[in-house]
Amino acid sequence: MENELSIKAQAYRNSPEGKKAAQEAKARKFYCQAEVDRLLTFIPRQLDELVPWLAHFSEVADHVGVDFCYTSLASKLEAYGYAESAHVTKDKEAAKRWTRKQLGEYIVGQAIHCLRFNMPPHPLTQMFAEQYRIKEK
Fold it and tell me: How far, CA to CA in Å, does 74 sit from each of 38, 80, 112?
């Protein structure tokens, strides 16, 4: 069975569809790395700019082969005054009462937490960023 799967996988990789998929994957990786590099040239300080920045960053940084210094980004965010795991609570009702600022600080804190574990910000950052965007100022 394993040998049969290997043969089928090799046949796919050698097919026009497989070659096209490999080219697309290579192009996507190149785009993601270039976008991460570009984003890291300017990291916003204010939540209204930083939260959408983190959402986009989480999208492009969470790609196999994309490389950047996790600790450097975490340290930069902390130097801006944000704290790892800010406002983390098991009380879901309390989280519903967060102000927009507290939600933003939570998002940044979770990103720092991921970075401290040598991971890019979690893709859920994008969902929380949307909640932040629509929350009343």
Answer: 17, 10, 5
